[in-house]
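Researcher: We're teaching a course module on how sequence relates to structure. For the next exercise, students receive a sequence and then see the predicted structure as tokens, so they can try to spot secondary structure elements on their own. Here is the exercise chain.
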Amino acid sequence: MAQQRTVGGAATGEVEEGRPVDVPVDREYLQTVLLELLRTPSPSGRTDAVMQYVGERIAELGIPFDLTRRGILRATLRGRSPVVRRALMVHADTIGCMVKRLQDNGRLEVVPVGSHSARFSEGAHVTVFTDEFERTFTGTVLPLKSSGHTYGDEVDTQGVGWDQVEVRIDEPVETARDLTALGIQVGDFVALDANPQITRGGYVKSRHLDDKAGLAVCLTTLKALVDAGVGLEVTAQLLVTIGEEVGFGATHGLSAHLAEMVAIDNAVVAPGQQSREETANIGMMDMTGPFDYHLSRRIHALADEHAIPVRRDVYRHYRSDVAPALEAGVEARAALLGFGVESSHGHERTHVDGLVALTRLLSVYLQSDLTFHDWDRHASGTLDDFPSTSVQPVDLEPVDRTVWAEAGAEE
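Model: And here is the predicted structure for the students to work with:
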């Protein structure tokens, strides 16, 4: 039976009930939004401008949203369920730096915002934001011994670390007093310039693909659903967080009726990992533990049903918005989907084909029903209704184990 459904709040066309469709993806929109997001600095703690951009894009699609006191954005995608039971979580904040000290040589000592190595910041162009909004300064992160003509082989033997680098400001400054005169202070944010580039072959090279690429995918997914006139079985929300890189992204803002939540973040492309830049990727486990058995496999099955290229992977030194949400007490199934990123938190690279694949996967997932139609609509239930051995069977270990005689015992 066909019926009318909604996305955001406006009535849409007729679709066959319960059957997700593979909707067209606007690649030009995806790339345009991605580049604009990447060119909008947003280190954790200084994210208002990027949230303004995201809100304007969602408003263009006619989807209702609001923002929390601190600036987390919540967009609601109306479906058949009367309350929000599903959430996509993606973060708009990125790694960056903060001024720790104005040095006597007129340069800045900085500390990292978020977890990243100074090794990959050496040579980075930066923007320093002062409290006077119209006064920003450009600069470069340099090792303390940055001239081979002066230090010779010492440039190769200097250690790696944030105490081994400094920021050179592109102004005629030679002392800490000169920096103060510019209005630069301890606590000012230092954004690593993204310098995005899309190659002829579809590779995207840039800092901060984590998680600007995921955010672009989510916005493109919303547009794809609206443009195609399809709706949702389950009312969902898009939660755009602003503190994931420092560990407290999805701590609030989620619906009290949530049954499923899926974080959209980078998938690690490196030796020993299965994730790819050209595919969608499903994280089965990270450093905080396995993701939901049923939801993860349900999403994988959707990818197979719609011929969406997908990989499954396990990540060691990794944490997403799922972790703070679960730690905050959200009682919902949780999964992780990712776009492949080579050299994450370093000189990052992904591929447009992988972003398109992830957009397709999110589109069919949002159209699908909950993992368990009846059970997942309630916060609790009886053992008789619990989907246990019927969906996750195990065989008991055999009782006839062989017992070896102790050494020296009589036969």
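Model: If you want an answer key for the exercise: Confidence is low (pLDDT under 50) at residues 1-6, 9-16. The chain has nine helices and 20 strands.
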